[in-house]
Write a structure and sequence with these properties.
Structural class of chain A: mainly alpha
Strand content of chain A: under 5%
Number of helices of chain A: 13
Strand order of the largest sheet of chain A: 1-2
Number of domains of chain B: 1
Oligomer: heterodimer
Order of helices and strands of chain B: HHHHHHHHHH
Radius of gyration of chain A: 26 Å
CATH class of the largest domain in chain A: Mainly Alpha
Radius of gyration of chain B: 23 Å
Helix content of chain A: over 70%
CATH superfamily of the largest domain in chain A: MetI-like
Number of helices of chain B: 10
Number of strands of chain A: 2
Number of strands of chain B: 0
CATH architecture of the largest domain in chain A: Orthogonal Bundle
Shape of chain B: globular
Chain lengths: 305, 296
């Protein structure tokens, strides 16, 4: 009797196994969350040290235009003005997105509305493949094709914001295109049919119905491309010229947050002001990627019908 | 201008845009392959790099890239699999916490890889004193790889119909047993695709590695397979410059006389490997699908 009672009251083997599995898979998930939290914690604690322990003024850091952390300015404070890098980063990102978005929309419309056959046969696989090309390869091509081209056309060294923007444009084009194609495909078929039934030409259908319906998705694709461009380090670092100066024109050497970071972190001593200032730049990068993320969410929420 | 003319003009413009994009993309691929492939030779693929003289190869870097990829996958696959299983099978899809966790994963996937690399540098290289090593690099790449891999595994599990789960429960299997014996085998083809595609991404990553796996490639003794010897290829505590980092480094330092040729060749190798990953992902997934579902 007791044996039966015991076996009924005891947890079954299956349920114990289930609890075990649940615990294991949960800890894997928890690990990822812990990693994200600790990335934010460590970068923030390093990045904020510039302001709290080295006493740098936050406003001065964001707007100052002279970047020479190892030197002291006239007022006895270190020269840590990050504005040249912040402006450089935003300029290359915006320029790249501005060029890439129309091309991406045009290509995507071509692939979905005008010539789906050729789109599926040629453009589709090629864009898919290009999404996977490592960014250093884009940097190398920028260095050996775009920089000499800029040098020939605009004079100077050829390094600069324009070269960086061109490299980023080519780099984000496949990503933005394939995301735009997905949103255009998601526009219901009856929208197209109704527009055509009303006597709209193909272009009127595309312009007045499909693109309107797909606007949130296209915006998301564009912001996603911007986020990728903003965080790209090596491809930009190779072609931008790496001079931490206020950019006066688009073809003189400049720098971005990521390019200064990749160059500087190895050449500064952990814990020094020079080093902390770089971590502050990393913190700006981190916060910006958060902003892009929130923007994508906001667009998705607004666009959800 | 009437609507018909506008339609014609717009169609022409769209053809032109698509043509330009195809031209750019084709030129890109063509440039890399035409510049790079002539430099490929057995010597180039196996010889060690030489810093100051021409004629060096990429042997050590290629090996480092593949070895680092292997270690990264060994680290990240179990974690991503566990997280994907929990998110798709156990987590309550409506709860706020699940939503927050998903957002966290999304944030991790959108972090610039250089920031992930710097975090790895700060925590593992400096704090835990692992130094510039394959281990530090693999951990950084794991962080970089986890969100996308988790996402693709979760998606793969979600495509398995709920009927299968109900059938498992009806047979008296626990949820964990259902996952292990029914859901995972059914989702295997898409999981394999996800893993192989993420491998392509990891293989080409450089920004996360320059401060974790390091920028130097010490000579390796390919006759020594004891993982605890410093010159052994299997040692995970040695610094290891990968192929992608090598391309970046020789281009930004510019002391190698044939940097242009070596980087062209190395770029071609990178792209060919990524291509192989892409094609094998497709092939493997359809092969496994046929094998596991007896579809002819």
């Amino acid at each position: 009797m007791d044996e039966i009672r015991e076996s009924l009251l005891k947890q079954s083997k299956a349920s114990r196994k289930d609890q075990f599995g649940r615990a294991i898979s949960f800890s894997a998930l928890a690990l990822i969350v812990i990693v994200v939290i600790s990335i934010f914690y460590f970068v923030a604690s390093k990045g904020l040290a510039t302001f709290f322990s080295d006493g740098v003024n936050l406003w001065g850091f964001l707007t100052g235009s002279e970047w020479a952390p190892s030197q002291v300015g006239d007022n006895g404070k270190p020269l840590v003005g990050a504005a040249p890098m912040i402006i450089g980063s935003f300029l290359v990102t915006l320029l790249a997105a501005l060029i890439a978005t129309p091309f991406a929309i045009g290509t995507a419309v071509f692939m979905t509305e005008i010539s789906p056959k050729r789109g599926a046969k040629i453009l589709g696989p090629v864009t898919e493949l290009l999404v996977g090309i490592p960014s250093v390869v884009y940097g190398f091509i920028g260095l050996s094709v775009i920089v000499p081209f800029m040098r020939a056309v605009f004079g100077g060294s050829g390094f600069g914001i324009l070269s960086g923007a061109m490299v980023l444009f080519v780099m984000i084009l496949p990503t933005v295109t394939s995301m735009t194609v997905d949103t255009l495909r998601a526009v219901p078929r009856h929208y197209r049919e109704s527009a055509l039934a009303l006597g709209a030409t193909r272009w009127q259908m595309i312009y007045k119905v499909i693109l309107r319906g797909a606007t949130p998705g296209i915006l998301t694709a564009s912001v996603f491309g911007m986020a990728r461009a903003f965080g790209e380090a090596l491809a930009v670092q190779m072609v931008i010229g790496n001079a931490a100066l206020m950019p006066h024109n688009l073809t003189s050497p400049a720098s971005t947050l990521t390019s200064v970071l990749t160059q500087g972190i190895g050449n500064t001593v952990m814990g020094s002001l020079e080093n902390n200032a770089l971590w502050s730049l990393a913190l700006i990068l981190l916060l910006m990627s958060l902003v892009f993320n929130l923007a994508i969410r906001a667009i998705a929420k607004k666009g959800a019908m | 201008m009437n609507a018909k003319n506008a339609d014609k003009i717009a169609t022409g413009v769209l053809y032109a845009i698509a043509g330009i994009v195809i031209l750019i993309l084709a030129a890109l691929l063509g440039y890399i392959l035409i510049q790079g492939v002539p430099h490929l030779s057995w010597h180039f693929l196996t010889a060690p790099a030489s810093a100051f003289t021409a004629g060096g190869g990429i042997g050590i870097q290629l090996f480092n890239s593949l070895y680092l990829l292997l270690i990264t996958m060994l680290l990240s696959f179990p974690i991503a699999l566990g997280a994907g299983i929990y998110l798709n099978e156990y987590a309550n899809p409506k709860s706020k916490i699940t939503g927050m966790v998903r957002m966290t994963i999304e944030i991790l996937s959108s972090l610039p890889s250089v920031v992930v690399g710097l975090f790895g540098f700060l925590l593992f290289v400096v704090q835990f004193n692992l130094g510039f090593s394959i281990l530090s690099g693999a951990i950084a790449l794991t962080f970089f790889n986890l969100p996308l891999l988790t996402r693709s595994i979760e998606d793969a599990l979600a495509t398995v119909p709920d009927l299968q789960r109900e059938a498992g429960s009806a047979l008296g299997l626990s949820r964990w047993e259902t996952v292990g014996h029914i859901i995972l085998p059914a989702a295997l083809p898409s999981i394999v695709t996800g893993v192989v595609l993420s491998a392509g991404r990891v293989f080409g990553e450089a920004a996360a590695l320059i401060y974790t796996a390091g920028q130097s490639a010490p000579a390796l003794n390919f006759g020594d397979w004891n993982p605890f010897n410093i010159s052994s290829p299997l040692n995970i505590m040695r610094p290891a410059e990968t192929l992608a980092v090598h391309i970046w480094k020789i281009n930004s330092e510019g002391i190698m006389p044939d940097a242009q040729e070596v980087s062209a060749g190395a770029s071609a190798v990178l792209i060919i490997v990524v291509l192989i990953f892409n094609f094998s992902a497709r092939y493997l997934s359809s092969y496994l699908y046929k094998r596991l579902t007896s579809t002819k």
